[in-house]
Amino acid sequence: MAELDCWHVGRAPEGAGRNTGVVALAAGERAQDGPVVPLFDALDGVARRAPRVEITLPVYRGKALVRLLGWLAVHRLAEPGAEISWWMTKRQGPASIQRMLAESGWRLEKERGGGGLVRLRGTGPEDAEDEGAPVPRSFAARVGARELTFSADYGVFSPERVDDGTDLLLQVALDGPPVSRLADIGVGYGALAVGLVANGVAGSAVGTDVDAIALWLARENARRAGVELTPLLSAEPADAEPTPLTVCNVPTHLDADETRAFMASLVARGRAGRLLAVVHASLERRYAAHLAPLGALRTHPGPSHVVFETAR
Prior knowledge:
By secondary structure, this protein is of the alpha/beta class. Helix content is 27%, strand content 32%.
């Protein structure tokens, strides 16, 4: 097997060179010439380590993610003594991140990078014992007949409780007939998929999301609950195999073109099987129009949200 020159955590920049691998934190991140491994798989280990690791620290994730990515670099991606670089903006607090890493034994020098970025370059802690990935924040919730614990951290949606839309969709789905497998489109940290499989609504689930960090949390939550969940890093609902049930807490922050494409893909899934989709009640008419090709829809109104259900 050929050696690997470098792992990039996040998208590899243009001109990064050949034989560069990417640990994808988001859908669409690709290497020019080398393996692409989603974060949730890289945390289990990669086939080849590299003499260099480049980490582009994502914004709006909080400094807790630094510890997770640092553990990933040292214990999963880097050869012993490898050069490891952290790239970030000035607003992300390079000095405070440098101090935080130094407390864990990192030796890093700060440099000015291109494009307004700051680079921290050096090596990770020597002979650091692998005690496993840092433990993310979590909360407990009652879902149907199960008391479940959900890890929810690093900037994911609704990190302290099951949000109102998901809760309403759970109530509707828990009253429905059991199926062999479901698809959760935009799975997040997995409250829907894990909750429904744990309660016997489905035998297993596939969960799609554009965020590999959320997918890692969803997979860990599924493992803790003892349920089967297949994570799929994708922005396209059609990339998940056909299932007799599809659930979706619809992402309403997309632009008009993205919304049309996303909803058309949900319509295609609704033609193949039962679809349950939830939006805020104030958006009911707008999203009902997107789902109109499915024909008559049953609606389940709640205090602040509404669930659409196909008649199938």
